[in-house]
Amino acid sequence: MSTTNAAAPRKSAGTIYRAGTLAYNRRQLVVLFFWLLIGDLVFMVGNQFEPRVLPILLKQAGASDAHIAWIVGTLIQVMQLVLNPIYSYNSDRTRSRWGRRIPYLFVVTPFVSLLLVLTPYAPDIAAWLMRYSWMRALAQNLPCPPAVLMYGLMVGVFYLFYTGTSSIYFYLFRDVVPESHMGRFLALFRIIGALATFIFNYWLFGLGVKFPKEVFLGMALINFAGFMAMCWFVREGEYPPATSGAGKTTDADGAPSPKPALPVRAARSVVTYFRECFSDPLNWWTYLCRLMVYASMTASSFLVFFPMHELGMDIDEIGRALSWPSLVWIAVAFPVGLLLDKWKVFRVLRWALWIQSLAYLLSFFLIRGDTSFLVSSLVTGVMYWAIMLCQFMLGQEVFPALYLGQFFSANVVLQSVVIALVVSPFCGWFFDAFKGVEQTLALPLLGTLKIGPYRYIMLILGAIFSISLFSLYRVEAIMKKRGLATTRAK
Predict the structure, then answer these.
(1) Stated pTM of the model
(2) Which H/E stretch holds residue 440?
(3) Which of 48, 46, 68, 50 is nearest to 58 (CA)?
(4) CA 356, CA 78: separation in Å to the nearest integer?
(5) Residue 194 to residue 223: CA distance in whole angstroms
(6) pLDDT digits 0-9 by tens, 445-476
(7) Which of 61, 92, 127, 314 has the smallest CB count inside 10 Å?
(8) Can you give the residue ranges of every domain in the chain?
């Protein structure tokens, strides 16, 4: 990688925008945005495959709803629970000639791309292993079909590296984007993310199910090219000296303290991490508000089965219905960004969570066919994009900038525990327990409503967003009581 600081303009370059020790003119700022948004486009398209396509591939391999919940929900969250703090804590404190985030992205990207290629071959690998008698004997005692177990293994190894991408990539924004342009960048960031989601749902969703090997290979190549290019062209600046946390780096006389042994340093780091991250109720309520948004993503893995099994829609119709909200968001994202500048994040997020909670509640009663499913998807999909934009800005408002990765990772720790031990097992148990059960409900003015098990995903999602809304109110109350401004001291 090049080590020249491409972000240092000549004095004659015009208006200067600063992010830490980095300085940009207008042209360089446009170039920075371009490469960061290329990374976003690649990330968002690739990020759709695991929660959208993988459940269907698992079903085709003989997985039950409980198996899907454990692999798509619990397994992934456990991987993030273990790995996200390691990536985040260490990247906060890494100091290298290439910065503190880029080196990690550069290392994990090739492995992520390779495992994307291998994942859809899980049934083939399992079938190949079944040629051996000892494997056939072992398979008789497995709790699930061999192909499903192989998918689980592939997903686990994939997230060993992908966790590095999914956490550290977002921390890079705070380090390289000028604060004066952060709102506009995040609006563009969500526009590109919505465009990527539209591309996936409209064109790639059905293809990913019908031709998984070819589509996953294409995604692997795009992932490799996009992130490696971003690592090459985006430059980080200089950071203050790293410490192990809040601990001192000098003794009473101002001289450097002797470096303790590795086990002592590791133990101190763990204690410091938990003390700094989990001792403040303001952080706890912020964590809960944000983690519920991500819990909705896990629960939404079962959403595809509602129109498929209970509305009679085919996979292409579902993909198109799920794609239109992203296109609508592209049109409204920048006005939402302007609204954020005017109203600030708390007010916008509060309204978005109210609308989302009520929209899912009404969807349970009002969806009767493909048209009403499309309307529901438009409302909840657009609100989801707005909530995702706001929850990221909420973390930046509350968490300290220098250790942003540490506090975001603590949020992921709590998120992983809740999703892995509560949300995912509950969803798997619920849909397996109510499989084949149908009820009818007579509603005034609306007639008779046929209720199958997957319709309840609307109520589950409504409850999840309601918890997020309650948590946001608690965050605001604590900040008001402490006399904190909406933008916390950096």
Answers:
(1) 0.68
(2) strand 439-443
(3) 68
(4) 28
(5) 17
(6) 777 888 888 999 999 999 999 999 999 999 99
(7) 314
(8) 28-240+278-481
